[in-house]
Amino acid sequence: MRFMADSTGDYGLALKMYMGSLVEAFRDKTYLFDSPGIMRKNAVGTNQHQFLMLSELPEPESHTPGDELLGQQFEIQDGTITIDDILVSHFDVPLDQIVLSHFSVVTELAPRSALELARSYDQRLTNLVINTARTSSVSKNGLVIHGGGNRVANSGTTLAGRYPDSSTGAQNFRGDAAQLAQLMDEDNVPEEGRVMYIDPYVRRVLGRDSTIFDVRFSPGNPNNLDRRAIGLLEGFTIIPMVGRLPSTVVTQYSQSKYNGNFTAATGGLPAAFALSSATSGQAAVGAVTALGINSKMVEDDRRNTTFIKSQMLMGAGQLHPWCAGVIDVTT
Fold first, then answer.
1. Each residue of 293-302: pLDDT tens digit?
2. Phi/psi at 114 (nearest 5 deg)?
């Protein structure tokens, strides 16, 4: 990569008048990569991790003494989380460009390549959680293993169509959040540790609802209108999520679990999604790691370059869909 080149030549970025720093534009951060809503395991000598789910149990039966008890039916369903392909962020920097450069590109690329891995996997996890929340119920031999994820879907071609920038839009979203909370209540998901990730537009709209910020309704309210702080809503801890909520038909990943239809027209445009903390022993999504983020920098004397590489080997998959929720806008 001839990083000092521009339209004027190979060394177009050579010293003119230097500001003293090499900067990168603000990028979206990670939200789920280290989230307590993701259950994590280390892979040991295998590329898959098995998990088991017990079905609902039949109602207790009346018994007449003397009759033989043969045992009631129960079922167990298993699933697996598979390690994905190695994910690599890599750069090859030529020696002449390093020597003649008045800024240090190597020291900037090394840490940021590792961060790019986390960002990339964060998007995969986001798509996976939304797909998990849309999962249907599963039964085995007539017994329900689980009732599926929790989805609230209402009509509107765009987010603004469902949630206009007004008190009406704010109340629409609050009503949808309340419905999602009810669905999770009915699944007996613990109320503690529920987190909702919202689109930045939704954050703006919620500012139109004065009841969210009125301390009369909640002494010690963590919500603050002037600071744009929405700490709690319908029992969910609110986290605005920038640059992650998908809005297209995603087909770019070789593992289909990270792909999906996230448009209002055919799949559902996500306005928000929710997770329950994995500290309860149950989580919507699990991640299995064989190799965490590992970075290396090597001088290649045969090619006169410095090779920079960050890589990871892990995989994620659905665990317990009832711990996930999504608010979709559909047509």
1. 888 888 999 9
2. -65, -40
